[in-house]
Amino acid sequence: MSPNQRDEADQEKALAGWREILGAEGVLHTPAALAAVGRNTSAFPPRDVTAVLRPTQAAQIPDVVRVAREQQVPLHPVSTGLNWGLGSKLPVRPGSALLDLSGMNRIRYVDARGRFAVVEPGVTQKQLADHLAEHAPDLVTNVTGSSPNSSVMGNLLERGTGFRRHRAEEVRGLEVVLGTGELIRTGLWSGADARHSHHYRHGLGPGLDGLFVQSNLGIVTAAVVDLLPRREELRLLMFSFSEKVLPGVVDAVGALFTADILRSIVHFFNDKRILSMTASTQVPTWTGVVALDGTQAQVQVAVQEARGPLAAVGAAVREITAADAAGDEADPLITAMFDVHSGRPTTAFLQGLHQATGATTVPDAATLDALDDSTIGYLACMPVVAVEGATVRDLMATVERICAKHGIVPALAINPMNADYAESVINLYFDRTDPQQTASAHACNDDLHRQLYAEGFRFYRIGIDAMEFMTEQDTAPWGTIARLKAALDPDGVIAPGRYCPISG
Ligand SMILES: Cc1cc2nc3c(=O)[nH]c(=O)nc-3n(C[C@H](O)[C@H](O)[C@H](O)COP(=O)(O)OP(=O)(O)OC[C@H]3O[C@@H](n4cnc5c(N)ncnc54)[C@H](O)[C@@H]3O)c2cc1C
Questions:
Q1: Which of the four, 34, 427, 433, 444, has the lowest number of CB atoms within 10 Å?
Q2: What share of the chain is helix, strand, coil (3-state, %, to 5)?
Q3: Which residues form the FAD-binding PCMH-type domain (predicted)?
């Protein structure tokens, strides 16, 4: 038998094995199903996929892994597969089966007193927000600006960020199937009969949760996530400023975090990014937004304390209350901002993206989520930067120079998370039907990664095509990570190449 014939025979055996576990309806192998995996808004070259697997229960996953090991066909797990800008649902390397976990979508448990939820991979942000509104109205979830139908889990495992805080910091425990097929639970969740298992996220011994975030060491089948208490009062501070004063605003925000006046992520958007969130054409160069919540008295003090330093560096500051964001007359951008900061997912940003890239009418809900099937091209480059005005100014100078060289106006966000670091997002939009624009956007994205890296900037998330370049650099202790990989996934069957230079 030739190697090709042997590969095909292994694949056939794998498909048969998976059908026994998942039923015929849980194993898709039609050309249409396989081609759909390849379509992606970033116009990354499609990777060949052997099948799409659709489990419905965590108990099926160890057997799915067993078959993958026996037949040497790797698995690429996704939760809802909306990792837009970084690869959508595409694996890094060809030859995997897509493990689509969206059908495992139970909210297993919400503890209103302990303020946590136990969610499976397919649980969407809308599903969790709706569930809390009905069953635990004193709690809210930290939501992103992505689709209401995107998952809590996939965002967490990509180390994504909600409007209120970093998602990975909300983890209180994970349930994971390793590449060996063993199912483990982290921290105190691993044991039985404790009075409480999720009040202390670390457990005893080395903490393992971080091993499974931006990793290919396991398939996560459930997560315990922290929920936020609904406070008596929530207001937004919105402030606008010219790019000239951006460094001063960054330093002022850093000082406000240090003084504990700000306690929630700040977002700065440039005008191109704002235009992709709203139909408005009258926008200042940069817009900042941050939530202040607590008792009425606490919020009042925080507003007063934050206003002065921001105004002193040249920002025009507005205070937004719930009443300003409500009703038909309200500015849609302000309503959307209020929604996401209050734990209500919105389609507004996705709508804005469609409109900013050419849609003349508001697309319906199904069209909004079908970004991968649209003509919209979208790539994201994500450097992390110190909250230091001079460094942010240097970052901007390089980003603007490179984007200008490639003829692209970037949609930028700089999001100080605390006094120490800001996550920045450089969004490149293009028309996927135009080969010239597509090539320029990819060249620009590649150039941005290489040039920013050369200038000492590092990245907090990367797309599937930047994986190889970035994992060749000393950005992580890759040798140690490879030894962990060999122990936890000895046959290299989980997501080869995902945030890992060595595995198969
Ligand atoms: C308009 C717009 C706004 C956006 N706003 C935000 C934002 O505010 N914050 C933000 O972070 N992102 C944002 N995004 C990017 C992206 O859409 C979100 O991060 C989204 O949550 C990711 O999709 P997902 O939840 O379907 O994750 P998935 O695509 O399912 O997962 C992401 C990756 O995690 C891994 N993974 C997923 N599930 C598992 C599992 N169970 N076990 C092991 N590995 C797994 C896979 O490698 C997968 O590729 C935005 C995108 C757009 C277009």
A1: 433
A2: 40, 20, 40
A3: 44-230
CATH of 1-230+466-504, picked from 3.30.465.10, 3.40.50.2300, 3.40.50.300, 3.20.20.140, is 3.30.465.10
Per-residue pLDDT, averaged over 300-314, amounts to: 97
Task: Report whether residue 79 contacts ligand 1, using a CB cutoff of 6 Å.
Answer: yes
Residue with CA closest to ligand 1 atom 29? 81
Check whether 23 has a pLDDT greater than 70.
yes
**Which atom of ligand 1 lies closest to the CA of 160?**
11
The pLDDT, as a whole number, for residue 5 is 64
Residue 195 CA, ligand 1 centroid: distance in Å = 34
Using most ligand atoms within 8 A of CB, pick from 105, 123, 151, 155 the residue to mutate for ligand 1: 155
Q: Is the CB of 351 under 6 A from ligand 1?
A: no
30-39 average pLDDT score: 96
CB 238 within 8 A of CB 278: no
154 pairs with which residues across the strands?
Answer: none
Q: pLDDT above 90 covers what percent of the chain? A: 87
Q: Is 223 in the pocket of ligand 1 (CB under 6 A)?
A: no
Element (H, E) at 352: helix 348-356
Q: How far is the CA of 494 from the centre of ligand 1 (A)?
A: 18
Question: Which sequence spans correspond to the domains of the chain?
Answer: 1-230+466-504, 233-461
Residue 291 has pLDDT above 50, yes or no: yes
**pLDDT at residue 2 above 70?**
no
8 A C-beta contact, residue 200 and residue 187: yes
233-461 in CATH: which number? 3.40.462.10
For residue 177, the model assigns a pLDDT of 98
Give percent of the chain above pLDDT 70: 96
Which residues, other chains included, contact 251 with Cβ-Cβ below 8 Å and sequence gap of 6+?
313, 387, 388, 389
* Bridge partner residues of 224 (DSSP): 118, 173
Decide the pairing of beta strands 228-229 and 139-140.
Answer: antiparallel
88 lines ligand 1 (CB under 6 A): no
The CB of 355 under 6 Å from ligand 1? The reply is no
Region 161-182 average pLDDT? 96
On whether the CB atoms of residues 302 and 125 are closer than 8 A, the answer is: no
Q: Do residues 481 and 500 make contact, with C-beta atoms less than 8 angstroms apart?
A: yes
65 lines ligand 1 (CB under 6 A): no
